[in-house]
Specification:
The chain has 500 residues and is of the alpha/beta class. The protein folds into three domains: 215 residues, FAD/NAD(P)-binding domain; 104 residues, no CATH class; 137 residues, no CATH class. The chain is built from 16 helices and 19 strands. α1 runs parallel beside α8, α1 packs parallel to α15 and α4 crosses α7. The longest helix is centred in the last third of the chain and has 21 residues. Bound molecules: flavin-adenine dinucleotide. Flavin-adenine dinucleotide (FAD) binds next to α1, β13, α14 and α15.
Length: 500
Amino acid sequence: MERYNSIIVGSGISGLTLALLLAANGRKVLLLEKAPIIGGCLSRFYKKGVPFDTGFHFTGGFVKNRIMEDMLRVLGIRDSIHPILLDKERSNRFIFENEGLSLEMPAGLEQCCAKLENYFPAQRVAIRNYFEMVERVIQSTPSFDLRKISFSPEPIEEDYISLQKVLDSLTQNQTLKAALSVYCMCYGTKPSEISFANHARVSIGFYDCLTRIKDGGEAFIRAFSQAFKNYPIMIRCNTTIQECLDIHDGIVGRVLLSDGEEVAFDECIFTIHPFEVLKIIPKQHFSKAFWERVESFEPSNGFFSVFGAIEGEKVADNFEPSIVSLLPHSDINILLDPKYIGPQALAIFQSLECAKDKTFHVLNAFEPSFFEQVAPWSNSKVGHRPQGYTDYKKQRVQSICNRIQGFFPEYKDSFRMYDAASMLTFRDYLFSPDGSAYGIKQKVGQFNLFGKLPLRNLYTAGQSAVLPGILGAMLSSFVIARALVDKDAYNNFINKSLCP
Ligand SMILES: Cc1cc2nc3c(=O)[nH]c(=O)nc-3n(C[C@H](O)[C@H](O)[C@H](O)COP(=O)(O)OP(=O)(O)OC[C@H]3O[C@@H](n4cnc5c(N)ncnc54)[C@H](O)[C@@H]3O)c2cc1C
């Protein structure tokens, strides 16, 4: 029987990060992926030669000494990732449709603060206080310095208070509150539910500078695949764990894989959705309270997505990579509420993408969506959806296309829709239980599923563990690796890649 030091379940960015960290620190790794290809939410798809991003679209933190930059350096793949900074005028705009108000968000924390002070001169103190609090959270978050990460960092005061409470204490101006919480859409938890600290930790990269990556998530997949060649990492796609075997004294000795093979291991780390973890681990070894805690997690929102491109000869002149968020009103709590049935927010991303020496003017649009909206067809699978679903999809595509062309009248004749995806599409392609974009909602005071499970050589990491998005998913893997690798060796490994 083959024996591995580490089995990693799931090959999204957290699984890839963990595989590389553990292998670079001497472990023999088996990476299991249920889908036919690796990458999870990083993957791209192509329609008529045009590349589209499935999940991951943009990030931040490509600033000296910020965590994203540091993580890529330690992994040795920074030089393979080419950031495209959205730092031009009008690169990042919030449009409050009911007020006819357009806010431009520049790059840089100080610049965002100054710009908002310009828009809301009567709210200067509130705005300054908000950005000072964000900066303070980042300074006092130990895991944002890779040299200091640990399993159970001391929580800070802002971990216990919701973003909403902080905003309410700073200002009565509803539009300003919305402007300061638009990034909740980038992690799928309402301002009333997320802690101020986690909102700050996710948003800081966006305040620094919204950043696309050349070739999208595929660039990460390529970089990891290249780096894997130097290490003993075995990848098996179309494969998962069917059963845990040989359990003694709280330790699992072997697993039966879905292809019928049995493998032995020292530790196994799940980087998949917590509900998917529950399907694999043997129930009798866990308490009722543990089970109920995990089952009580709520999904973050997903997206209804339209994938398209601008075509024709006149396009290139004004086309710049950008993001515009259309907000029908200024209550983000309502816009992220599954029961809300009014007009949704819409994020429109424009980017220049290359494939086979051709450049495409890609325009994708994302409306927050909730599983409730597709629940009537939840038993159907890709390629076999009922008419009701097809009608729902058609109607939603039409409405999004109308909004795109309403906002960009210059694209009236040149926007071409290539594909669309509902939460069911995301569920079925990404092997997530509910098609949510960011795993579970990370609510203030919630105890996520992270780290060691009651079976002591099983661990969990991933986007639902510490922070959502690719940054949070990677960070969770750095923390787990630190727990598994000899402490001094890991410190040396990290320090040798980081600036003093
Ligand atoms: C539409 C959309 C837009 C997004 N936009 C952004 C963005 O702009 N910026 C950002 O930072 N984040 C964004 N995200 C979120 C981001 O993509 C995720 O937070 C991150 O990529 C998750 O990484 P992960 O490794 O934790 O999980 P995943 O990428 O979901 O990887 C999990 C992997 O595990 C596999 N798997 C599942 N079950 C099993 C099993 N039983 N056995 C084996 N393998 C299994 C899956 O197939 C998948 O490959 C977006 C997500 C979506 C869906």
